[in-house]
Design brief:
By secondary structure, this protein is an all-alpha fold. The chain contains 10 helices and no strands.
Amino acid sequence: IVGLLGQRLVVLGLQADSAEQAALLAESGGFTAGSWSRYLPAWVMMAYVAALVPRARAERWPTAPISSWYRAVLIPFGALWSLGLAVIWNFTQNGLMAPLPYLPILNPLDLTTGFAALLAVVAWRLRSEAVEISPSNRLPYVAAVGAYLWFNLMLLRTAAHFLDIPYQFEPLFRSQFVQAMLSLVWSATALVLMRFAAKRLWRTPWMAGAGLLAMVVAKLFFVDLSNVGGIERIISFL
């Protein structure tokens, strides 16, 4: 509740009421991107939830005398809410941090994603201690897939920024540079994963790498090579 109210108040405080006000703020150097009004309250909320973790473990105020409920329900819910916001923003926001220059990883969206992921790990450990949940063998795979998805979205945002492409599906899909970048990244990832798994005789990661490589080959024939011709087709194939 505190996070939601704070986010609404910051939105009202940072956004201009009209185009004239926005122009005046920009000329005076006081304009701030509306995206900050999303991230700053989220950081405050995650910091507050993180501050509750040691107090819930020690059964201190403000969690006492219901510290077990904080450990099992409230703190995991706050972490899940933060992670959900980060997932939605990764698909809908471009990570711009005006008036500051855009920086991969060090922009507010990627920082929010990192904070939310760390908070989710801490909350999961806290809940496991509270309700005695046995660790699942699938969690590392889920975390790895999530981290790789975030890495790809970060690459797309970076390409959209430096190539001046809208951070939307259709413009990114039609960009030959973006398609080539994804093919190279996915191919390198598949080969490294297969090599790493082969040394340790791990079947599941090797099959994942092989599946990713097969998807790259299919993408080359049905997407990359279908949109170009001549020398561009040869370069894409190579």
